[in-house]
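Batch 3, record 17
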Amino acid sequence: MAKERLTWVDAVKGFLMVLVVIGHYSGPMPVESPLITYIYWFHMPAFFLLSGLFFKPIADNSQLKPAIHKRFMQLMVPYLFFLLLLTFFKYGMMIGDGTLTSAFLRQDLIELTVGGRFLRGEHGVFWFVTVMFATYLLFLWITRQKRWLQFTILAACYIAAQLEGTFAMGLASEPDAASAQIPMIWNLDVVLIAVVYFAIGYYFKAFWMNIPKAAIGIAAAIAALAMAADGIGFINYH
Amino acid sequence: MRYDHFLLDLIIPIAMTALIVGIFQQMTAIKRLPWFEKIEKHSISIMYLHIFIGFVVKDMLPYNILTYTLAGLFVPIVLSILIPKTIPLGEILIGRFNPRKHMHLS
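Prediction for the assembled complex:
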């Protein structure tokens, strides 16, 4: 049984990774289609949800440090390695082109440190890892609270994320420009909504581990309805 | 900062995730999907490197969704195989830290 579970989890994560790659394609599509828009509707929440599925709460204080150390090593060490690797290549190419200036270097080093939404171009996905690590830490703390308080905190996080999103979109009409209006190291404000998806994976583990066929049908109907509503302009979901 | 749809931000991602997960659970119950499992095994490298590889593809190959996607998957997978074999502690650098195996480092 455990083997079967791992099989579908690995396959889903592999499929989502293909969607991440396709989602960053910026050229013309062979056929006009909103495929990339639909990928962005769910692929990052799905990663948080699947991570929450395998979250293990820690009640024993002596287990906290080893658990946090393990997640740090699994998430933040590769983050630093690939950040340095790509920066090394980029600077190497710029030195070759003669385009590396001290002004650029100063600005780039600030952006590399602040991370999150300020990392663009080849570093465009790095925000996900800092958000995932912070989400893990926050949820670790949340699950050490009383049950009623856990849901209260999660509801507060969701409402705060919605308020911030609405506020930001009021500053600029385009989401990327809007987010740039709110300076935040490592995209830590995104944790407010990521932790909700993470929690949905954790609290509804029994459902996610074996989704009933009826639920798949309902999910398909909702997805089709959302796509149709988007197609006719009834909703404007990004 | 795209979270400004109070209901849709829950309904759409959860429904679409349930649809994808449900379909994969049904499919893998009949037959394993080794290609996706292999991609998952190297997902850290793919995640970090595919955009950079895409820039290289733009410069060196005909840029279309097929060349971009194949290169964005294949090149990081090759590097993900090579890094642990060629760099000391390479396994840790690509996210495969195992406390039992690497305990002496902590």
